[in-house]
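User: Um, any thoughts?
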Amino acid sequence: MWHERRLSRVVAVGGGSGLPVVLTGLRRHLPPDCRIAAVVTAADDGGSSGVLRQQYGVLPPGDIRNCLIALARVAPEVSAALQYRFDDGSSGPGHPVGNLLLTALDMVAADEVTAIRLAADLLGIRDVVLPSTTRRVHLVADLADGRQVRGESEIPRSGAPIRRLRIDPPDASPAPEVLAALRDADAVILGPGSFYTSVLATLVVPGLLEAVAATHGPRIFVCNLMTEPGETDGYGVAAHVEALAAHGLPRENLDYVVVNNGPIPAKLRARYLTEGAGPVSVDFAAPSGHPLVVTTDLLEPAPVVRHDPDKLGPLLCQLVAGHPRRRMRIGWPVTGGNGRESGSVVSLDRLREPRER
């Protein structure tokens, strides 16, 4: 008989605006005693994070701040205060209060992980937020035209497709706490977020992809809703999965790919089109049925295109809790317009159908 498994730890990997949405959804819908470990990119070098990193030699605090706020158990006013950005009238970016707090803690604590833990304690967080590495790293992109671009903030401006992403220095390693969290994980969730400069920026820390591949629970990739100018121009689901494979996470090491099929309002699509962005197409083909592509409406009703944490959270919890390894290769082949199998793509409603016993 099929049973749901009791969960103890889920690891979510990435950064940017996508990871906090995942954390919010998981925290609202996971059992209270299930712990979340967020593994956050440490390569940000733009905006307030870039300034503080350059001035004080600290880890970039912005992505860490947003993850802490997503998991915080405090009054909304406290979260809003941490996001409050002081503008001193200079040409540089203003600093959010949370960035300044993390910078101060980083300066006085025994190490970076301790500093983040102290901030989490102040916010009543029972979960864990970890930097992908405690080394001061930079992203380097090898482009299709043969050039190399250094720096997270410079990569989307390169004007050429990205072929490969790596970390400098190349001997940077994950924090031991990160490897331990992945080793004990009941599931690992990758994305959404800026695909190269948040998701892969976290995964390309040497040793981290291997640790993700070795986890005993399901690996779930949440695909972005829209393409990103300068990063994933023209990408469908297949190109995202192929890029993961090119960096060391082949499709057989993914169990689910989660994709939105909710309609994006025409006016919103038109606005994004002026910026060079469009919806990510469901063009992925997996004849073996693995990974399983799960499609459902994941859109939040908002003036911007983003995932709804109260749609994404329950879906992720369902996939994590209901994934016995002996039944990984479930799925129903879908016939494409050319009459050939286009892979195992199922709607959430079909995933909810009773399973054979």
About this structure: The chain has 13 helices and 14 strands. The chain has one domain: 9-43+132-351. The radius of gyration is 20 Å. Residues 309-321 form the longest helix (13 residues).
